[in-house]
Design brief:
One of its GO terms (biological process) is carbohydrate metabolic process. This protein is mainly beta. It has 2 domains: about 1-135, no CATH class; about 165-354, Pectate Lyase C-like (3 Solenoid), CATH 2.160.20. It is about 5% helix and about 55% strand. The protein has helices at about 75-80, 170-180, and strands at about 5-10, 15-20, 30, 45-50, 50-55, 60-70, 95, 100-110, 115-120, 120-125, 130, 150-160, 165, 180-200, 210-230, 235-260, 275-295, 305-315, 325, 330-335. Strands 6, 8, 10, 11, 12, 13, 14, 15, 16, 17, 18, 19 and 20 form a 13-stranded parallel β-sheet that branches. It is globular, with a radius of gyration of 20 Å. The termini are far apart.
Length: about 350
Amino acid sequence: MAMSFFYLQDLSSSSCRAFVLDQDTSSWPLIDPLPSYGRGRELPGGRYMSLIHGDGLQDVFITGENGTIDGQGSVWWDMWRKRTLPFTRPHLLELISSTDVIISNVVFQDSPFWNIHPVYCSNVVITNVTVLAPHDSPNTDGIDPDSSSNVCIEDSYISTGDDLISIKSGWDEYGIAFGRPSSGITIRRITGSGPFAGFAVGSETSGGVENVHVEHLNFFGMGVGIHVKTNSGRGGFIRNITVSEVTLNGARYGLRIAGDVGGHPDASYDPSKLPVVDGVTIKNVWGQNIRQAGLVRGIRDSVFSRICLSNVKLYGGDSVGPWKCRAVSGGALDVQPSPCAELTSTSEMSFCTN
């Protein structure tokens, strides 16, 4: 099976290079790891260049009449499963350090790895796209804005083998040193299905994630509806996150906010670098066929604070598994099933009523 990718060298002249090769990856171009990751996400060292790749571009338009960009990912998935790849798989589309980007009216299908990855970018609009991959395809995240600012993702359908949308900002000591957060992100009117999270923050959040507004999500057949995930050693912060107007039809967990998720790039990470999670509001959520309401689990030495659940109604068959909480503080208003005590004992709940 032949595979091809396109490298956007110079948008102003509309030039590109195309490479076609078979399953032998020895001639597939390699690029350096991202500085905020320090190595390839899957394996040490460099990584295979994305099928569509741009670096340092301005005024980028990737659009079409719902035509399909096919990553032919099954070749890569098979090699990943057989553990024959020496480097991290390529994304379908990656733009690095680029500004004023519009991606619209395109179908992205069968990415080898993450589908759409804007990293160190600003002023990005992703609208009216479809992202598809089989639910058993490994690590085929839909859209992952990473250490990027002023991003809008809207009016799209995503069905993949991993998180549908996941906001990231670098990995442990490398992300802390690079220090570029993801901020000013709006996500709205997204529909989709997948075995992991519908909307996620993390787990790579070492540069920080802040000022995120998410609304009008419609997910079915999910692993987790909403997942905020980090870990000891991550450092960074997750703050001022609001998710509202969410419909879930089928999920193992309605909601997870957890401080023990995700591995580390190497043994040099500092486990004392604890993330700060403060100001996460989840409101107006309705779910059916939910197995477990949710888990809100902070870190003993870094309690997750101002966690607000408001008008969250999650229903199952006979019963829904209860909320599980620890090392958190916050408030809960009109939540079904009844929330855990850690989210009802606070005396000051003004942050949860705004």
